[in-house]
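ok trying again, last paste got cut off:
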Amino acid sequence: MQPHESISAAIEAAKAEGRTGLVPFFTAGYPEPAEFLNTLRAIAEVGDVVEIGVPFSDPMADGMTIQRSSFVAIQKGVTLKWIFDQLESIKGEIKIPIVFMSYLNPLLAFGFEALAQRALDTGVCGFIVPDLPFEESGEIRHALEQKGIGLIQLVTPATPAERLKLLARESRGFLYAVTITGITGGDSGLPADLAGYLDSVSEVSTLPVCAGFGIRSAEDIVNVGKHAAGAIVGSALVEVLEQGADPAVFLRQLR
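nice, full thing came through this time. structure:
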């Protein structure tokens, strides 16, 4: 099985158990770099796939909670190389697929071929790059696919039908359905027309569809799970970590 296929398999396995796949997101090294591995271990006990955020100085798709976590992690010295080094120190211990969410600049600076090799060596199965248009992704997609690593595509309620088909076809691991047009972490709730949107995305995707942005509660996950295979929980989890609470306890409440 290719690394990106393990992402799909993990979400499909949750679906086969009659539940929504849970994809927790947290920013690497926040609130304390020394706690990164313990946080990862705790999340991996409950999640089906874990999404690790690579801190970036201008995280334009993220709301205040994740922006704040990113700035703090950068100030405390967290870099892409540091995250890989940390994962390498516990290689083989995390049993669920790991996905990195990163803006393009840190990946460019690292070098795409080196990135793909390091991902393969440390158990990273896929990447989400929110500021990389598909038309400009050929070089990184090629480098990742050489190692079986997936580039996960994002779609939104504003994505035209033909483009939706293209992104669904070219995504690997899962297709990320952004539930709202805006930034992460909003507390305005999920949109009223969510069901129709997620159904239309799921209809064109052979991969599991995971919904993200604005998912904060067990009720949200139930609603999402009627129309998508997985739910991504980010800002709400980062808030839990900010408060020093146990992420596993919070995540179990969502299952």
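cool. The two ends are 27 Å apart (CA to CA). Residues 3 and 125 are 5 Å apart (CA to CA).
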